[in-house]
Specification:
Length: 101
């Protein structure tokens, strides 16, 4: 005798990638965006700082420039890369969250 009641079983919906979805929550979305933007910004600032230092030390023009001009150049490269990486990883984690919903 089979006592399994298949009428009460709940079928889980799968998304287009074949994963089981989960309910959308704005707090989860914001948490994912914040995580991606934070990690991306930190990574981008590290890459930007290293690249700016390398560019400043190899440039003939910046070697003769004042220390404040060199610092401004390094700072601009650092925050530019940080913003770019932060925006990219924030968008990436948004898309990643959207495919799981």
């Amino acid at each position: 005798l089979n006592n399994n009641n298949n009428n009460n079983t709940k079928k889980e919906e799968v998304n287009i990638l074949g994963y089981v979805g989960r309910p959308y929550q704005t707090s989860d979305l914001l948490r994912n965006v914040a995580f991606g933007a934070t990690i991306g910004s930190i990574t981008g600032m590290c890459f930007g700082f290293m690249d700016s230092i390398r560019s400043a030390s190899s440039s003939k023009l910046l070697k003769t420039a004042s220390r404040s001009a060199q610092g401004k150049f390094v700072f601009q490269g650092t925050y530019r890369s940080g913003m770019f990486f932060g925006g990219f990883f924030g968008a990436f984690h948004t898309v990643k969250y959207a495919t799981r919903v």
